[in-house]
Structure formats: C-alpha cells, structure tokens
Amino acid sequence: MKTKVFLRMLLMAILSMAGLTACIDDNEPKDSVKEIRMLVSAETDVTYAWGDDKMENPIECLLVKTEGDSEEWKKLGFEQIQGFSYERGHEYYLSVKRTILANPPADGSDRTYELIRVLEDKLVADPEVPIDKEIKSEADIEYQELCPFEKYAVSKVFTVDGNGIIVDEEGSTLPSYEHARIWLENVLDQEDPNWVKFQTVPYQATYSFVLSPLTDNIRLVRNETHGPMFKNVVPENEFTHITQSMKSGEEVRYTLILANVSKNGLQKVEFMIKKQ
Fold it and tell me: Tens digits of per-residue pLDDT, 82-118?
C-alpha cells in the first residue's frame, strides 16, 4: 500500500514539473514569422561589414523596400534572401518569408528572409553596356591595382548538341540557352593576405569583356550576381553557328576578361565550347 502511495506522489511530482516547464516554455520569446512583399531595385549600393567602423572595405549590396514599411530604400546583402538570385539591371517584386528572431546573434541581423516566389521580374537595363573608350585588343584593357589575380573560376568545357542542349564539365544539363548562366565561382584562398580587400567593390566582377573566336570585336557584357548569362557571352548568331555549322568534335575557345564596376580588368578566364 505504501508503495502505491509513493508511486502516485512521484507521478504527481513529475506531472507538476512538466506543467511548470511547459509554462516556462510558453513564456519564452518566439520568432515572428510573416509573409511580406518586397521590391528589389535594379540599382545597387554599398554597405560595410560588421566591425568595419572606419568604412575601409565597401561591399556591394541590394536596395529593397518592404510593402507597408518606410518608402526609403534599405540596404540588404546579396545573400540575405535565401533562394533568391539577383541579376543586375532587373527590378523584382517578391513574396518573401520574413523571420524576426527572438534571440538574434550578437554580431548579426535580427531577421532572416527566404524567397517564396518571384511575383514580377522586369528588365530595366540592357545587360550589354557601351565601352567608355575604344577597346580594339586585349592590350587596351587596363587592370585594377593588384590585378590580375585568381579569384574566380568557370566551367572549363561546355558541350552543345544540334538541338542547343548545353552541358557543363560536371555533366549537368544547363537550362535553356535563354536562361543558362556561366557561373563565376569564388576560389580565392582565404589565406591570401589581400583576401578582405578582394571582397570589396573594386575587386568584384561586375562586367566581362568577351573575346570571341568568331569575331574580332570585343564586347562588354554585364555580369549578374553569379556570372554572365550564356546568351550575352555567346550571342545567338554564334550559338547558331556552333550548333548548326560545326561538326561533331569541333571546338571553339572563348576568353572573358572579368572587370570591376569601373571597367578595369581583374583576371582572365577561358572556357571551351565543344560540339557533341
């Protein structure tokens, strides 16, 4: 009998503690999650990393407005909207999940953003831009201080067939010619003594000078957030030649001179297009 009484009292104590814990949990602050509408400008701005009190290392960023919030543009990092890929010259209207953190990190933002869907994508600026001065050869391109340097890498080989299907060197099929991208991968060693400097605006690949094997003209195209669009590097007439006129096994080599916002060269990358 005493054993049953003891077990009953023990069970009541456990339930009481569980109830107390639940009450404590209920009183803890919780993250606030809400679907919002956000406008992303076709223009960008610069911001500074946390701790860069002297503002010595500007970093390019987005300009955004939240519907129902202030009419002023606010700065937001390129990678802060999870799942969203920004293309320069485009203006976006987005549906975004915003989470206001109850316990934000001491050295970070108190909110996170995740793309739900793109409601509108409007091209505001042509991705091919005029060159301020005459560039007739690679020798005419002036390089930024400390350049060239190895910060970016691209797929070395793209294979295309007669139907215009594009496959990269990893064997992955790219989207259609209209939507394929030449991805710029940041491969700079973080042990490089200039690593922090190379992340700033003067060392970001905003443009690409295109040296094509099919023309003597050097074109300047605007890179997007992760690299230039394939169609801007390989225009339709050249792509048609590759897919329709080249024989199986033939190849052509393209060169990109990556350039910053001032159109000063950063580094050279090359890739080959091979007819399947």
Answer: 999 888 778 899 999 999 998 888 777 889 999 999 9
Tokens matching residue 56: 């010595």
**DSSP strand pairing (111-123 vs 81-82):** parallel
Q: Whole-prediction pTM value?
A: 0.59
Domain ranges across the chain: 32-123, 138-275
Q: Check residue 173 and report its DSSP letter.
A: B
**In terms of Cα–Cα distance, which of 247, 251, 248 is closest to 273?**
251
CA nearest to 257, candidates 175, 184, 167: 184
Spatial CA neighbour of 158 closest among 84, 215, 89, 238 = 238
Beta strands in the chain (DSSP E): 32-48, 58-66, 74-76, 81-82, 90-100, 111-123, 152-153, 157-160, 166-167, 185-186, 207-211, 218-222, 251-259, 265-275
Q: Which of 250, 227, 232 is nearest to 154 (CA)?
A: 227
User: d(Cα 178, Cα 225) in Å, to the nearest integer?
Assistant: 17
Long-range contacts of 164-168 (CB under 8 A, 24+ apart): 164/239, 164/243, 166/230, 167/276
Question: Phi-psi category of 117—alpha, beta or left, where left has phi over 0 and alpha has psi -120 to 50?
Answer: beta
Instruction: Report the alpha-carbon distance of residue 158 to residue 172 in Å, rounded.
Output: 10
Per residue in 167-183, pLDDT (tens digit) is 999 999 998 998 899 99
